[in-house]
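Thread: quick sanity check before group meeting

JM: Hey all, I'm pulling together slides for Thursday and realized we never actually wrote out the predicted structure for the chain we discussed last week. Dropping the sequence here so it's in one place. If anyone has concerns about the input, flag it before I start.
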Amino acid sequence: MGRFQGSATLGVALAGIVYAGSALAADCPGNPNALGTSRTITVDPAEFARIGDMQYRQAIPLGPKEVVLTFDDGPAPPMTLRVLEILQSECVKATFFLIGRNARAFSAIVQQIANDGHTVANHTQNHPFATMSPGRGIQEIENGYRSITAALESSGRKPAPFFRFPGLKTTPALESYLRGRGISAMSTDFLADDWYRRITPEGVLIKAISRLEARGGSGMLLLHDVKPGTALILPQLLKELKERGYSIVHMVPAEGAAAKIAEASAATAVAAEAPKVKSAKRRLFTSREYRRARIKKRETASLAEAKPTGRYWPRTVERDSRETP
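JM (edit): ok, ran it. Output follows.
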């Protein structure tokens, strides 16, 4: 599904792709044996409105044994910082789909992601679990872009016009909205299930490699930079990819596309981000439910000032990403 076969079909697929330079392993400072980044693919959302053959019929046209790395749900210290350190040591470039409120809380990490040469993309403002209504979805998309744009402002960079739905839960209406904005809806080609709370780091490695090889040896991999197990196993995963003859391809947006998205998002008046709490009279909350709803509303309103809790990542990040990809 979604694979490009035959020279004519491949020619059509390549219409929206431009191939740029590479960061070869031999050029990696201090690590001549690094995996490196073999090449860069420039993706034009006008040609690739929906990407990822887990859900769509269109995938990035990769060659044999080529992998695109993507990370969801960050940023969150210390795990995102550890992931960035590992990627830098191997001169590997990836795409990070950030949650907007986390981007606002940890803007310095967002700037580091961009300054390290990775692609910064959008994963909504609050990572809602349920399938989003059109109205709520538009708010989440636009507020996510606004938060990420604000976090990147001092670096002079812009977020990419790439968007990934939380839990990969898409809707035709929101896909249409993204297309109208010139944003690519990014699914994935395969998962390593690192979001699942009971999986071990070794399990993440096994699933990533086995699923990559089962699909023919190329594709886009979805991981999570907020998961301790992912940070723990990432060096071994990159080593395994190199030993098996795989190479990394970096995905970036077409020139000018990111600026268009940033301007459109900043110009859009968006309603308050926090979900409204229904009246206790209308819903007949118990006292515990009502208290929890009020606490959640306060937490959402003050999230921009969130600080690490001393655990692996803030409670807010853990709650949002615990059981969904």
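AS: nice. The chain has twelve helices and eleven strands. Residues 1-21, 269-287, 299-322 have pLDDT under 50 and may be disordered.
JM: adding both to the slides.
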